[in-house]
Design goal:
Elements (H helix, E strand, L loop, with lengths): L2 E10 L3 H19 L1 E7 L4 H7 L5 H7 L4 E6 L9 H13 L4 E7 L17 E7 L9 E4 L7 E4 L5 H18 L4 E6 L7 H16 L4 E6 H10 L6 E4 L1 H14 L7 E5 L5 E5 L16 H13 L3 H17 L13 H13 L1
Parallel strand pairs: 1-2, 1-3, 3-12, 5-10, 8-9, 8-10
Antiparallel strand pairs: 4-5, 4-11, 6-7, 11-12
Helix pairs in contact: 1-9, 1-10, 1-11, 5-6, 7-8, 9-10, 10-11
Length: 355
């Protein structure tokens, strides 16, 4: 019996539709090779729709999205829409309402990819950040008073429940065990200043780790120091677990060390529900429609989608396709400098992945 998946596709804004088209091309190619079929349903959420209708995500859409096996997202962000509206109204709303409480971000340098880290190669840069994706300052607890006066006060609090912390840590421990490399999980926090929130994280980390994951080595780093070590000694890391905002920041640093937004992908995971996969670069409006944007990040997001659906062979095919295209065909990851167009990169990866 052929396996079949229903995938919701949100191409979104700017170059989102172009890169998503290449991801779908590659999925179709590995699907044909592995006997998997995909049924794609496209949704037009994004800046254009918002400018036309004033609507970001209709409530009915959330109910529909819950019924898919996964969601594949291109990019959200439009130059004519005030920052925050689309991000909060679409991306963060889906993350929260579908309770995608993990943001998984692999940081892996492939051969032939240039890194700004001198003397570092693929053997040094290969780790995964498990970013908590449902809490922290992102929950929007807080408010503003006396706005526009000299007395204005604005508050945005870092809020965590033990429940949120525990489920994130358990996912990270399980992931570290499954990954089966150095079996080392590093908690990244700020226990020297944020003494309430990271005391909670640290206690939970050691309680859960010592009781249920004695095979996993536990480490702790402050977030500021982590930024230094990610540059100086990235080979120290196997799996990192951290809270939402810290994870947002350090994963952009991680992304640039693996070659930048052209290659970095992420998954918004609900281990018990519907997950959403995306390239982590933005909508790059100035490159829209030019066939110059790099689709590898979107293709890597499709790979993560297959891994999460437990289609590991098909996922490995995509990674093989990416690596071969990097070795043989792609000159640079930067938009316009690839030596190939967006569609041609997709063609190459699809062909290698299907071999
Ligand atoms: C990310 C992005 C989002 C975030 C923005 C677009 C809301 O930066 O996925 O890392 O802050 O989580
Ligand atoms: Mn970010």
């Amino acid at each position: 019996m052929a396996r079949s998946y229903n995938i919701a596709v949100i191409p979104g804004d700017g170059t989102g539709p172009e890169v998503v088209a290449e991801g779908i091309k590659v999925l179709e190619a590995v699907g044909a090779a592995e006997g998997i079929s995909f049924d794609f349903t496209t949704y037009d959420f994004g800046g254009e729709r918002y400018l036309k209708t004033g609507e970001t995500l209709p409530d009915s859409a959330l109910e529909e999205l819950r019924k898919f096996d996964a969601i594949y997202l291109g990019a959200i962000g439009h130059p004519d829409v005030k920052p925050g509206i689309l991000e909060k109204g679409i991306l963060l709303r889906i993350r929260f309402e579908l309770d995608q409480y993990i943001n998984l971000r692999p940081v892996k340098l492939y051969p032939n990819v240039e890194t700004p880290l001198r003397d570092k190669g693929p053997e040094h840069i290969d780790y995964v950040v498990v970013r908590e994706n449902s809490g922290g300052v992102y929950t929007g607890c807080g408010g503003v008073t006396m706005k526009g006066t000299p007395n204005e006060v604005a508050v945005q609090e870092m809020v965590y429940s033990r429940f949120q912390v525990d489920r994130c840590l358990r996912y990270a421990f399980e992931y570290t065990r499954r990954r089966n490399r150095r079996k080392t999980l590093a908690l990244v926090g700020k226990t020297n200043v944020l003494t309430y929130v990271f005391d909670l994280w640290e206690r939970a980390f050691h309680e859960i780790g010592s009781k249920d994951y004695p095979d996993i080595t536990r480490e702790y780093y402050h977030v500021d120091a982590t930024c230094m070590w990610m540059v100086k000694n990235p080979e120290w890391f196997d799996v990192i677990v951290t809270e939402n905002m810290f994870g947002d920041i350090i994963t952009d640093l991680g992304a640039i060390t693996q070659g930048g937004m052209g290659i970095a992908a992420g998954g918004n995971i609900n281990p018990e529900g519907v997950s959403m996969f995306e390239p982590i670069g933005g909508s790059a409006p100035k490159y829209t429609g030019m066939n110059v944007i790099n689709p590898l990040a979107a293709i890597a997001a499709a790979q993560m989608m297959l891994e999460t659906l437990s289609e590991n062979r098909a996922a490995a095919r995509i990674e093989k396709g990416i690596v071969k295209a990097l070795e043989r065909d792609i000159q640079s990851l930067a938009a316009g400098k690839m030596g190939l167009g967006t569609r041609e990169v997709g063609d190459k990866v699809a062909a290698y992945a299907a071999e």
